[in-house]
């Protein structure tokens, strides 16, 4: 039980307890509880599928707490941390994140977020990624938070403009890419292939050889 916090769902109380144990000695239980509630509220604003909201909150809150622990130096960063940001976190940044995971073979840890996240992934984007054998099943739009920016070694932006927070000492790269929203499928394929090329080049700058 975490005193002083009101949970709209019992599952969130249990999640807070589990994460408080996971991050024991790093964050107070009340801090963990607030992160869980903030993460839930942030996803609730845009989520169109409430059935998976608790599961997504668990992933989002865990990622945020891990990022904050990394930024504080409480967790090691064994591999480079890359953050992809676009406006809706429904197309470009999601494709970049999935390509990075696939091509790096775990040699890079990746996160993605949106300055104004959509309620769902772009279905055309999901379809063209499936064409190259990559599933978006575990992906979902997430709001941009300071903690994931602070933990990143490289921040790659794609059209989020002034909404992207700037921190001294961070490496920022902007990829000029057409937003795939409302684009025909052939154009989304072209964007997909450009993102894959950009990811391959980025991995080279990090000393990672892409998996063929």
Q: Major sheet, described briefly?
A: 4 strands, parallel
SSE order, as H and E? HHHEHEHHEEH
Overall geometry comes to globular
Helix fraction? 40-55%
Total number of beta strands:
4
How many structural units, i.e. domains?
Answer: 2
Report the mean per-residue pLDDT as an integer.
92
Tally of individual helices: 7
Terminal CA distance reads 49 Å
Widest β-sheet, arrangement of strands: 2-1-3-4
Rounded to an integer in angstroms, the radius of gyration calculated over CA atoms is 17 Å
Instruction: Kindly provide the name of the CATH class of the largest domain.
Output: Alpha Beta
What structural category do the secondary elements indicate? alpha/beta
Q: Let me know the CATH homologous superfamily of the largest domain.
A: Response regulator
CATH structural architecture of the largest domain: 3-Layer(aba) Sandwich
Q: What do you see in this structure?
A:
It contains seven helices and four strands, in the order αααβαβααββα. Strand 1, helix 4 and strand 2 form a beta-alpha-beta unit. The chain starts with 9 loop residues before the first helix and ends in a 7-residue tail after the last helix. The protein is of the alpha/beta class and 212 residues long. It is globular and about 50 Å long. A four-stranded parallel β-sheet has the order 2-1-3-4. The protein has helices spanning 10-22, 29-44, 53-72, 92-104, 123-131, 146-151, 185-205, and strands spanning 81-86, 109-114, 154-158, 171-174. It folds into two domains: 8-76, Corynebacterium glutamicum thioredoxin-dependent arsenate reductase, N-terminal domain (Helicase, Ruva Protein, domain 3, Orthogonal Bundle), CATH 1.10.8.1060; 78-212, Response regulator (Rossmann fold), CATH 3.40.50.
């Amino acid at each position: 039980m975490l005193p002083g916090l009101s949970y709209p769902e019992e599952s969130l109380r249990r999640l807070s307890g589990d994460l408080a144990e996971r991050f024991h000695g790093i964050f107070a239980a009340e801090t963990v509880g607030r992160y869980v509630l903030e993460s839930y509220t942030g996803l609730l604003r845009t989520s169109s599928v409430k059935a998976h909201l608790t599961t997504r909150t668990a992933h989002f809150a865990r990622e945020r707490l891990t990022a904050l622990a990394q930024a504080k130096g409480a967790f090691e960063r064994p591999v480079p941390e890359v953050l992809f940001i676009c406006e809706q976190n429904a197309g470009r940044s999601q494709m970049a994140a999935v390509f990075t995971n696939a091509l790096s073979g775990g040699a890079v840890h990746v996160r993605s977020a949106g300055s104004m996240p959509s309620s769902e992934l772009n279905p055309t984007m999901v379809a063209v990624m499936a064409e190259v054998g990559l599933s978006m099943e575990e992906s979902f739009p997430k709001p941009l938070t300071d903690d994931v920016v602070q933990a990143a070694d490289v921040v790659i932006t794609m059209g989020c403009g002034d909404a992207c927070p700037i921190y001294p000492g961070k490496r920022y790269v902007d990829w000029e890419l057409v937003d795939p929203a409302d684009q025909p499928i052939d154009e989304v394929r072209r964007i997909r292939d450009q993102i894959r090329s950009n990811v391959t080049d980025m991995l080279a700058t990090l000393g990672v050889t892409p998996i063929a």
